[in-house]
Amino acid sequence: MFLSKLIPPEDAKKIIFNHLKAPSTEIVDLEKAYQRVIAQDVTSNLNSPPFDRAAMDGYAVKAEDTFGHSEKNPAQLKIIDIIGAGEKSRVLLKKGEAIKIATGAPLPSGANAVVMEEFTYSEGKHLDVETSLVPWENVSPVGEDFHKGDLILEKGKILNPAELGLVASSGLDRVSVFKKPKIGVIITGSELVMPKTNLEGAEVINSNFFTIKSMIKSCLAVPDMFHAIDDASLMKDMLTKLLNDYDAVITTGGTAISKGDVVVDVANEMGDVLMHGVSLRPGKPFAFAKIHGKPVFMLSGFPVAAMVQFDAFVRESLHKMQGLQMKPLTIQKKATRQIASTLGRTDYIRAVIEGDVVRPLKIKGSGIIKSMVESNSYIIIPENTEGIFEGEYCLVLPYQSLKA
Amino acid sequence: MFLSKLIPPEDAKKIIFNHLKAPSTEIVDLEKAYQRVIAQDVTSNLNSPPFDRAAMDGYAVKAEDTFGHSEKNPAQLKIIDIIGAGEKSRVLLKKGEAIKIATGAPLPSGANAVVMEEFTYSEGKHLDVETSLVPWENVSPVGEDFHKGDLILEKGKILNPAELGLVASSGLDRVSVFKKPKIGVIITGSELVMPKTNLEGAEVINSNFFTIKSMIKSCLAVPDMFHAIDDASLMKDMLTKLLNDYDAVITTGGTAISKGDVVVDVANEMGDVLMHGVSLRPGKPFAFAKIHGKPVFMLSGFPVAAMVQFDAFVRESLHKMQGLQMKPLTIQKKATRQIASTLGRTDYIRAVIEGDVVRPLKIKGSGIIKSMVESNSYIIIPENTEGIFEGEYCLVLPYQSLKA
Hints:
2 copies of one chain form a homodimer.
Chain A: H1 9-17, E1 25-29, E2 42-43, E3 53-54, E4 58-61, E5 75-83, E6 97-101, E7 113-116, E8 120-123, E9 126-129, E10 139-140, E11 151-153, H2 161-169, E12 174-178, E13 182-188, E14 192-193, E15 204-205, H3 207-218, E16 222-228, H4 232-245, E17 248-252, H5 262-270, E18 272-276, E19 280-281, E20 287-291, E21 294-299, H6 303-320, E22 331-335, E23 339-340, E24 346-354, E25 357-360, H7 370-374, E26 377-381, E27 387-388, E28 393-398, H8 399-402
Parallel strand pairs in A: 5-6, 13-16, 13-17, 14-15, 17-21, 19-24, 22-25
Antiparallel strand pairs in A: 1-12, 2-11, 3-10, 4-6, 4-7, 5-9, 8-9, 18-20, 20-21, 22-28, 23-27, 24-25, 24-26, 26-28
Helix pairs in contact in A: 1-6, 3-6, 4-5
């Protein structure tokens, strides 16, 4: 079934997301879990910190012993022990006593504050405290960060540095993460060749090989790249094999809407083409199919159209296929010039954020890959808008925000 | 030499950046260059596209033959050849003729436009063209993207998907990139242990191992992790070895300002401590030294202080050490509540961007790693500001913008 009507991108996403398979999980060492998506809620096994600890180098004391004291009228205490980092005092601190303590060491029993070294003067076992402390001053109390049994991280978050530190602090050294989706990519086009400087005849360099492969990596998925000439029978064989070996297939080229085109024709023969043509510019000739139970994303052959389609539909799908919940940050900026659009069509305009304003690039053609390099963001003109006036606020999606 | 005055972060950065070594380069296959920093200006060896090419599937024609024609009054042409993708016609197209052409194929000699298939009707060799074309309609002219000899990418840019596609299109299959800096990390603290749930005595989990290691990876540098107990002699041996083996060393812990502390003391003995103490909160006890000609970044032992110091000083340094020029995107948002600060101090407040506003988290203590997970940005209060009023615009740095 071919759909003749162009589908709005938001509706297209809903259809696609309904056909993605729930991700499976695996256990990995926390050390190897950077940028993996956690597949379990993490409940802490420990208090953090695990005990009342000194937040400064100095002396553990009873705050009451220092009340009202100052540089001119120091409290006079007796040093009864020394606790280095990694050590724990077995001595009970009593009134009038002090214990030398290193940052991070457990506060000794009986103490309720730490005086910083620079507010003291010591000679042998004698200590002058030249300040007045409040109880728990310079102490990080047990469980200040989180308590044993607290839910500290929810399933679906990406393990960035802070998350890894937090999970480690909870006592876990192995975690359950979602498997990375394996993506088979078929770049179609008999004319495509790998980079070389002596092009012959109709040869064109296969830049999609490089852009699509690295875009998949930027989604933390695992690409394997294949090239196909424009032949329906070979395409069918390759697609069959890849659907067997991979979690999803992405193709480029052969998606023209006006007529039968090789990739969409083959997809239609093998499974359900759920959309063909979206109201997106650039990127109209996008198709999506479910074949042998797996998602097949069919992108344009034109490099920029393919990249926009990837950002609009594939990126979030690959995130979902590894359980990642992520909403890219968008911002509002004033446009430096008018941008024309059409009701019923969503535009992704390559643009440059320049301080308080955003400058849409002037480009024609969806093959102008240089424009993707010169821009750092998309201005998104939604379908219910006819365009943006000069100086009007518009929705800006920095490329940087797209990356997982 | 110990500096007693706290150094403003902006001045600290200038000092640090003056002591970083220029990066060396290596040649890599373009296929393996994703997220590497390019070390050469790229001048194209080719025109892109390499020839006038069909931008649509249809028929190559002379536009003049279609002038004034329409569905009711089609131009009548003779089909003289077929050009598939990857093929090139050797036939010269003359007045009254058409050549069937696939998207991407070279426009045959004599043609100056392509009519889309849906505006035609064909029967055998006969073609009706039911529209009027302007010259070069549906043609991507040679060099539309860039010309042979054009400077298409400058040294110092990171090779993201679009950059890879662009470089490929220019004909290059190998590029010169900056070497990734190798970073030796010494986590100090006798009390630190790897994650486990049965902590004993004064043991504390070494969360810095996980956060610092992955932060270095997020800068596209290569970390190697070591642990040291708080002992000056062992520290000196380890630092000596690491300065020999790595491009830079990062330490955590042992940087207390008030008194001599093990890491800074050892650094002072071995080389030049160029700063010790910055007017940054959290993160005041930061030190930087040049030892044996190499940079040594000394961070706090407290996880959040260490992370803020990393973001404020180390991240950009590691970028510079691989030749990367990058300015993170900052935005202005209204604060949901008042934030107190002090003149002469820069504050990095962990915060959550929520639509049009930014919500500063309420935290005390620099060890609260959960706050880094719950936040998605820093509010930066510059040193010349006493704070921010509720509803006032403030400078926001999304964590996402920090990543290379």
